[in-house]
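Quick start: read one record
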Amino acid sequence: MEIIQFFVDLLRDPRSFIAEWINTLGPIWVYVPLFGIIFVETGLVITPFLPGDSLLFTAGIFAADGGGLNLAVLLILLSLAAILGNTSNYWIGRKLGQSIIDSGRVKALTPQRLQRTQTFFDKYGLLAVVLTRFFPIIRTFAPFIAGLGGMHFARFSIFNVVGGVLWVCLFTLLGYFFGGIPLVQDNFELVIVAIVVISFLPTLFGIVGARLRSKKAGEKSTDAANATGNTDTMSATSAIDTADMPVTTNTADTTGALPEPDTPYAPEVPGTTDAPDTLGTSDSLVTSSPLNTPNTFDTPDKEADR
């Protein structure tokens, strides 16, 4: 609990801590806690909350005339701390990364943070090693993800050195040149808060942008799924309608003419010229029957009478 309170106080007012270290440790050993905090913030994946940006700015103030720190020594030692810290974190991720994630013991390694860092690497590649230096929390996870993903160490080291030197020099020189302004001295705590807020803005914008893109992607997936479902429903309905339609057996003949309607068969009767198209009444059958036609053959009785 005391260590947490220590880091909270350090984040809120790093000026008091550096002044105390100068008085108690002297002008040489005072660099030890500064080196250690910068190294741990970037070198251990479990300490992303340490105040790197504000500590560098405050150290730059004490590097001004009569502050008790030497600017050249400060830039060299703290750049070295940042470079070695990232290198340490890289090898932790490469050798133990998957085991640490699977154990679930490091609460700071949330899936969301890991995914945001991985997305950043996917977008910017090796340049992300430099850019993440200026993003609090993400800069702690970046070398860990680089090692976990098997990034080539030589290429990682080049961008690691560039990013470490740029980060330390930028914030330290800001404090060196602007920390002595009376407005900054009179409102130092507000300045530290502003540094922390400004440092978190890129990370905040990245989180919001990632969520908006994720939401749009989800909406597109939903629309595509609905469109696919509607298409399947229409296809099923069409198949049902086709199955319910009556089957037509009559087809056109080989000449292309439509088939004539079927008519009852009426045999041609001898002695008639025209056969009726349809069977008529019983009277018609009687008159057209060969039984009722005149007999042309005489019987033997009539032959004798003659």
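Residues 188-244 form the longest helix (57 residues).
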